[in-house]
Automatic annotation (TrEMBL):
Belongs to the short-chain dehydrogenases/reductases (SDR) family. It holds the Pfam family adh_short. The lineage of its organism: Eukaryota, Fungi, Dikarya, Ascomycota, Pezizomycotina. The keyword Oxidoreductase applies. Keywords: Oxidoreductase. This is NAD(P)-binding protein. InterPro entries: NAD(P)-bd_dom_sf, SDR_fam. GO terms for molecular function: oxidoreductase activity.
């Protein structure tokens, strides 16, 4: 897998990025940064109140970029990455919507205890969220991008590849 060059702000304008774990931290900052480049954003996470705050920040940044907002500028979808049903709902919400960029950011660290002391629930939560959920969503998004004929996937944290390189 090769690295692609960092896209210019102007080349990003008008694109749409789906950012998971957009309610805080790196995901929220990434969403606002994209919005400041005139990128439409689809924000997912579990905490609706935090997502609403990030949506407001994205709209402000998007406005500052000089682009005109509409109902598709920032779309919020509450979803638990560990829930198959939630991810199917996310995929359904993407229908009919162009998607150019996926930022697979949602995740957490559980089970910091020594090996042998880690709780089963922590193992399940980590794997279902960070691994299974990420793969399920990526599958859905890649299918979506294949149908529309283009897109860029960004596996967290640092690898980029184009659709041509993926398939
Ligand atoms: N910060 C670092 O130094 C560092 C280093 C290496 C890797 N990472 C990874 O980078 C990503 C972002 O880190 P961060 O520091 O920005 O963490 P953060 O502030 O805790 O953000 C994590 C995000 O993931 C979401 N999330 C967690 N569990 C989820 C679930 N089951 N379903 C849906 N969303 C879920 C959270 O949203 P809700 O709680 O609202 O659902 C939140 O928006 C994480 O995957 C983390 O493991 C971070």
């Amino acid at each position: 897998m090769s690295f692609m060059s960092i896209p210019s702000r102007s080349s990003l304008q008008g694109k749409t990025a789906l950012i998971t774990g957009a309610s805080s931290g790196i995901g929220a900052s990434t969403a606002v940064l994209f919005a400041s480049c005139g990128v439409n954003t689809v924000l997912t996470a579990r905490r609706a109140d935090k997502l609403a705050e990030v949506k407001e920040r994205c709209l402000a940044a998007y406005n500052d970029s000089g682009a005109t907002c509409d109902e598709n500028t920032v779309v919020v979808i509450e979803a638990d990455m560990s829930s198959k049903v939630d991810l199917e709902r996310v995929a359904a919400r993407l229908e009919g919507r162009r998607l150019d960029i996926l930022v697979n950011n949602a995740g957490m660290v559980r089970g910091r205890e020594h090996a042998g002391d880690i709780a089963d629930d922590d193992i399940d939560a980590m794997v279902q969220t960070n691994v299974v959920g990420l793969i399920r969503l990526t599958q859905a998004v890649v299918r979506h991008m294949k149908k529309q004929g283009s897109g860029v996937r960004e596996p967290f944290p640092s690898q980029h590849c184009t659709m041509d390189e993926l398939f």
